[in-house]
Write a structure and sequence with these properties.
single chain; 279 residues; alpha+beta; Trypsin Inhibitor V, Chain A; 4 domains; four-stranded mixed beta sheet; 6 helices; elongated
């Protein structure tokens, strides 16, 4: 039988059709297997674990069959010891069922490290050095001295620190600074709309002290406090007035999440039409 006749014979066509059906069936099985293996279309939303312990998260991970993996620990005062401070993927992300969620938890015991000795440094240099080593600048006390804004003493809980002293990482260190030999004053900033982090930066940079911090009823937890903003301050800032306060003065701040409490700027202006020139 010639090749041409074989290709159009019933036997060849029957075997070809059978082979095609087998191929289609195998492809169909492979697609089903891939769909089951990759869980295509079965994405779940990652819960928000911030502030919870790993044990408290167990009820949240059942639906998505997530696997929690503690990757590291840091020390912070924002959440209780053992609570979660960071997660990856972030809350709200859409991931496949069974995905590993990597966690960073708050250490049970703070790390104790040497404190940089900043006596003799300027306030700006001392602040940068302390913060780069994991400490915060606390209260600023100004005393008469020819070295304006230079650190004269470094204090922690009323104790003067010495070179080589160690403290818990993250604590605030108080500084005694020179204010010159006259009554120095500094401009009063407008803190309206600032977060606490930004307000603290401005307070330090303007040689002032942070007084009491008050949160209203819209702020419920540490996470809210990070997003809250200043709606009132004391001493009060008055627009179009150059206000000065003594260096080292305490600034009291009130925080909220309610933007309706922010002052509305008076931007309404009425322009009169130009008067035509008379000829």
């Amino acid at each position: 039988m010639s090749l041409g006749r074989f290709l159009i014979s019933k036997t060849f066509l029957k075997n070809l059709l059978f082979a095609l059906l087998i191929s289609i069936f195998l492809i169909f099985l492979i697609l089903i297997w891939l769909k089951l293996y990759t869980r295509h279309g079965q994405k779940k939303e990652v819960p928000d674990f911030y502030g919870l312990t790993v044990k408290e998260c167990q009820s949240l991970i059942k639906k998505g069959h997530f696997v929690l993996v503690v990757q590291d620990s840091v020390y912070t005062k924002e959440v209780p010891a053992g609570a979660i401070v960071e997660q990856n993927p972030k809350a709200g992300s859409m991931v496949k069922k069974g995905r590993k969620i990597f966690l960073i938890i708050n250490a049970f015991h703070p790390e104790v490290i040497p404190v940089p000795y900043v006596v003799g440094y300027s306030l700006r240099q001392a602040k940068a050095l302390l913060e780069s080593n994991g400490f915060q600048v606390g209260k600023l006390k100004y005393v008469p001295d020819i070295a304006i804004n230079n650190v004269l003493k470094e204090m922690y809980e009323e104790r003067e620190l010495q070179p080589g002293d160690s403290l818990e990482k993250g604590v605030s260190v108080d500084l005694v600074l020179g204010k010159g030999l006259s009554n120095e004053k500094t401009p009063l900033p407008d803190f309206t709309g600032m977060t606490l982090e930004k307000a603290e930066q401005v307070i330090i940079s303007t040689a002032l002290n942070k007084g009491a911090i008050v949160y209203d009823s819209t702020v419920h937890d540490a996470k809210d406090s990070m997003s809250a903003f200043v709606w009132k301050q004391s001493p009060a800032y008055k627009e179009k007035e150059d206000l000065f306060v003594p260096v080292g003065s305490s600034i009291y701040l009130w925080f909220t999440l309610d933007s309706a409490l922010l002052p509305v700027p008076d931007t309404l202006t009425i322009e009169e039409p130009p008067v035509p020139n008379e000829k």
